[in-house]
Amino acid sequence: MKKLLAYTSVFLWMALIFYFSNQPANESNELSTGITEVIVTAVEKVAPHSNFIVGNLNHFVRKNAHFLIYLVLGVLLIHSLRLSGVDGYKGIGLALSICVLYAISDEVHQLFVPGRGAQVRDVFIDSAGAFVGIGIYVVILFRTHVDG
Question: Membrane-crossing residues (predicted)?
């Protein structure tokens, strides 16, 4: 049951990534601009004299979203593979490979979405997020086995 739940979470997360990538450029930009405005509002409450330009910050938010969404995918994948008995370097390599291939396919998919395009830079950002997520998982797993 644990494996089923783990793999279901991987596929649901991939579906969420597909959903976000399938949004036309204007819808995607509206969503990220809305999130950016919430962040700016929150920061201005803490630091009222900060002068953020939403457009500049929006780019930063969008790229960090790439990183974070693939960080989570990396964690979900490495965990699922570990539950299936694929661990160690083989599990790390397979999880990272799946994430990189999914990032590439995601960018290719965006070529067919109105106003969107493929960005090699986004594949690198996605891959870095997956790498960090997998690394965090491995470090936590190692620490819990060493300490406990």
Answer: 5-21, 65-81, 88-104, 124-142
